[in-house]
Amino acid sequence: MVGGVVQGVFFRDGCAREARRHGVTGWVRNRADGRVEAWLQGDPKAVEKLVRWCRQGPPRARVESVEVIEERPTAVEGFRIQ
Questions:
Q1: 62-66 and 36-41: which strand pairing?
Q2: Separation CA 42–CA 34 (nearest Å)
Q3: N or C: which end of the chain has fewer CB within 10 A?
């Protein structure tokens, strides 16, 4: 979960681009409370790179918090914006 100024700043598009670049599968979506939620799967090093990207986000974002919760992997192909 990513909080701060993260909606309306192309956060989801940037996250999807970075995920595809690093071979991470999953999804990213806006939440009604103003945060962005992402489900990330893949090589642990690639996922960590994407989490690091989320801590900064695209140029117009102001990330204030990132909450990471580890869960069991599921069968997800590709990366999509919801």
A1: unpaired
A2: 26
A3: C
In contact, 54 and 66? CB cutoff 8 Å: yes
Distance separating alpha carbons of residues 38 and 3, to the nearest angstrom: 12
- pLDDT, one tens digit per residue, over 6-42 is 999 999 999 999 999 999 999 999 999 999 999 999 9
Domains of the chain (ranges; CATH) run 2-81 (3.30.70.100)
As to burial, measured by CB atoms within 10 angstroms (0-12 exposed, 13-18 middle, 19+ buried), residue 45 is exposed
Q: Is the dihedral of CA 13, 18, 21, 23 positive or negative?
A: negative
Partners of 40 in the β-ladder = 26
Residues acting as catalytic residues: 12, 30
